[in-house]
Amino acid sequence: MSNAPLHVALVGNPNAGKTSIFNLLTGMNQKVGNFPGVTMDKISGTFRENGAAANVIDLPGTYSIYPRSMDERVVFDVLSDKNAHDFPDKIVVIADASNLERNLLLFSEIQDLGLPTILVLSMLDVANRSGLNIDLRALEEEFNTTVLTVNGRTGEGIPELKKTLFEDLSGSTELFYDINELSPEIIPVIKDKFALENDYVAYQYAQQTYSKSFLSNDEKKFIADKKVQYNFCDRQFQTTETVERYKIIRDKLTRIVTKTDLESTATRNHKIDKILTHKIYGYLIFFVILFALFQSIFAWAEPFMDYIDFGFAKLSSWAKTYLPAGVLTDLIAEGIIPGLGGVVIFIPQIALLFAFIAILEESGYMARVVFLMDKIMRKFGLNGKSVVPLISGVACAIPAIMAARNIESWKDRIITIFVTPFMSCSARLPVYAILIALVIPNDYVFGILSVQGLALMALYLIGFLGAIFSALLLKKILKMKEQSYFIMELPIYRWPKWKNVWITIFSKSKTFVFEAGKIILAISIILWVLASYGPGEAFDHAEQRVVEQNPTVGIGSQEFDALLSAYKLENSYAGVLGKSIEPCIRPLGYDWKIGIALITSFAAREVFVGTIATIYSVGSDVEDESTIKDKLRAEINPYTGKPMYSIALGVSLMLFYAFAMQCMSTLAVVYRETKSWKWPLLQLIYMSAVAYIFAFIAYQLLK
Amino acid sequence: MQSVAQLRPGEKGIVNNFTNEYISLKLLEMGVLPGTEVEMRFAAPLGDPICIRVSGYDLSLRLEEAATITLS
Predict the structure, then answer these.
(1) Residue-wise burial string across A229-254, b where 16 or more C-beta atoms lie within 10 A, e elsewhere
(2) What pTM value is reported for the model?
């Protein structure tokens, strides 16, 4: 045997404790990558046992190998593509001991694929407490497999699992349920064509022809033709297969499980549900939790974000001081470091958001939120499950859009993806903050409610309304005859496992930094080039021109540097672009300076503040917010002679930033998730149009 | 014929058959099989979806889906 690592795949029902076991096996050695050909993130990790390495893939939770959502599709693909480089050597099926019957359906299907399989029982303590007695030896014999137990909370059983994975396990040769009874003719044909050994794998090629991403179109057509020839009826066969499997499982279980007590866990669970899904308290509790979520994202994260901001500003000035002067240093200090800072600054918010979501999911509460919201969301063409992406969208649309993968209905999913960027993400916050400070008076109503705070809340509300009304519009436009359904397990309540929460925070933040980071970094470099270079003589002789225009200002003084950078920006490629779009944005109240900020922030909104800071010649002193504000306040509108940043302009800009799709990373993610440019382009056009119209109306009414 | 959608909280019934092929596949996978006992638990605050107890766990589904499960 070579030293190639052992490939292990973890499979199981949702809520079966799969993630806990994955975390216990791999700890922090996890990474997220892409499956070739599948637009799906793969969570994998490694562990070592006596010097030998194992690579573990965590597959999405599923109830059977017949997929219904994007997430589930990947399970059969991974387990049946023998040519894939990380095709698993061993499969671990994790089953919730307190719900063996349903969990064993998936196990029996996986076992029939003919791969070496271990059955791991989790939550045996819960099962025992509710009076279930499971004879593990009988389970091993009846199901012809190795059975291990693991406690996801204490980690008991993990060493045995690691050891067993390196032992020799033969796959079951006998089919649990013989599908040859259903369609004896087609199986040998497919086995022959694709050089398959296993009958059930061949049968699944026929069942799942169109969702299999590694088959070519010719191969799909071959199977489709044979299906017609041999009268293969997918759904009818699937129904018979499922019913027959359950029959065998139930029969076997009578010899394995004995019941002694009443269902105490279920009763306790039921009591909690009575409160949490109550007509009044149910929604009240939900809003209290949402409020806590917002508080944490905006109040608790702030000090950390300030530190990060400060740190990157220091780093940037350090680079300017100590690196040899030149273009490369400028690019590092003004392009790359601030660009990276712009990504890293969101880590506290992303981390807190994922901590919250992980806790809500781990405890079983998220399923109740979905349950509570389904009816309301349905009216707008969404689904109970759309709540999770919409809430996540408050931090960042990128992970939020990825969270839409577990929505089974394609129409519900596409609408959710389309409207999620309307939710006010954290990148809009710096823009809102500075504009509110400028144009909204710092007054209080009723002595306690800050008008500025209310304005900020109103902007979040506007984003949410934008999302749900766009969903309603799409629901009317999209003509798809697809059945939307909502069939979901309500898991039992349990205390979240903190280790899982930490690992979620760590791995999600890491993914965010690397995925979004790549794109934001590229854009910040492009922007830096556009803002640092300009066409023609006006830019080349910048210093000379500034001297001519301001003979009283000493060369090299701070004021001179500020004037110079403002002049350079005006004549840079970015400035030229800003001027060229001025006629188009004039009806909204904007001039070319704001135009530059609009263009630069089309890549990412948070760039707005930095751009404005540079344009108003505050140089690199972005830290000093009052300076930016004072400069903006002093700015005079050349057409009216009044202050530039009037309430009309402020509101117009805020509405523009609330609606416009100014985020390349989101567009890229939508492309990746929908596999077509149609959706991101429609989204870009639609959101920009909505932004323009609302900004226009606001400015014309208020000016 | 009575369906799961007509059960009141606390009432039980035995699954007989399904009226929608597509939904029935999902329900079967989730352990809602002909001959299985289901108990209506509670409804969401707006009356829909509902939560039923079946083969040892709680399953939520919409009323229109519950209406496709006939009882014997």
Answers:
(1) eeebeeeebbbbbbebbbeebbebbe
(2) 0.83
